[in-house]
Specification:
elongated; 27% helix; single chain; disordered C terminus; alpha+beta; Jelly Rolls
């Protein structure tokens, strides 16, 4: 029997992205993922790191002074979190096995314990105001995937829109993600040439 901690949610579905990567063998711990709200057609985060091992889930965000606006942590599996030892507030999104939002907590302060959600399969820990700025609500369908999978999703959306003679949904959101990628790569190049 396959456990949710062994594989991403979904089975190769474009909606639930999750690519079926085996955590125990193929997973790159340094890899970051995009979180896109399919219901609202907005990006929730462009830099979520997974916490899938016992130690990474236990450590969570401890030792961090703050989260940048494009960072976050995706804890798999998870039904509840705490902020004991954290020095800053966070937004929390509980997801079921299909990456559908089942509970949202905005501005969970330090040294708090969140409620346990039995139906939850994973939890996103994000900077404050992320839920507000992305307009994420209970019942929204999220897509968590790599930048490459997101690009493939947009190509599919463009092809479908061209077939019916319309504009793809969320085109502005994808352009925003591309700008972010260019900024990150420019910063990386600058850091390498400075150092």
């Amino acid at each position: 029997m396959e456990r949710s901690s062994d594989r991403f949610q979904g089975r190769g579905s474009v909606l639930v992205c999750a690519c079926g990567v085996d955590f125990l063998s193929d997973f790159d711990v340094k890899k970051t993922f995009y979180v896109f709200n399919l219901t609202r057609q907005s990006f929730v985060s462009l830099g979520v790191s997974p916490a899938h091992t016992h130690m990474s889930r236990l450590r969570g965000l401890l030792g961090r002074m703050r989260l940048r606006s494009d960072e976050g942590l995706w804890i798999v599996p998870c039904q509840g979190i705490h902020t004991i030892g954290l020095l800053f507030p966070i937004d929390v999104i509980y997801l079921d096995e299909n990456q559908r939002v089942i509970h949202v907590i905005e501005h969970l302060g330090p040294f708090r314990i969140s409620s346990i959600r039995i139906r939850s399969n994973s939890v996103l820990q994000l900077p404050t105001r992320t839920v507000y700025s992305s307009n994420t609500q209970i019942g929204d369908q999220l897509m968590i995937c790599t930048p490459e999978e997101m690009e493939n999703y947009w190509k599919t959306q463009r092809a479908e829109a061209a077939a019916v003679g319309g504009q793809p949904k969320g085109g502005a959101a994808m352009e925003s993600a591309r700008q972010h990628e260019y900024q990150v790569s420019d910063q990386t190049v600058a850091q390498r040439t400075d150092g």
